[in-house]
Amino acid sequence: METLEFIIYPDGRVQEKVTGVVGNSCAEVTAAIEEQLGVVVNQQPTSEYFASQVQEQSGIVNGNSQAAYSDW
Question: The pTM is what?
């Protein structure tokens, strides 16, 4: 699940935390909000930022749609 969490401090600073967004697409999710909030002074990427999206493979190897199995 994608979530955005904001903590607004008494001095006006806003801390934003994005979870559930894989890769650098979090920048796309937050760009409009950050533009309205003002200057970004610090960013700390999470482990999700460095993760890549898992893509399902079709099982086709060398043009053959049958999976190769070992004789073990």
Answer: 0.58
Burial of 30 (0-12, 13-18, 19+ CB in 10 A): middle
- Label each residue of 20-48 as H, E or C: CCCCCHHHHHHHHHHHHHCCCCCCCCCHH
Copy the structure tokens of residue 6.
Answer: 């904001």
**Which residue bears the tokens 């003002």?**
38
CA distance 17 to 25: 14
pLDDT tens series, the chain, 72 aa: 889 999 999 998 999 998 888 888 888 888 998 899 888 888 888 888 888 755 444 555 555 555 555 666
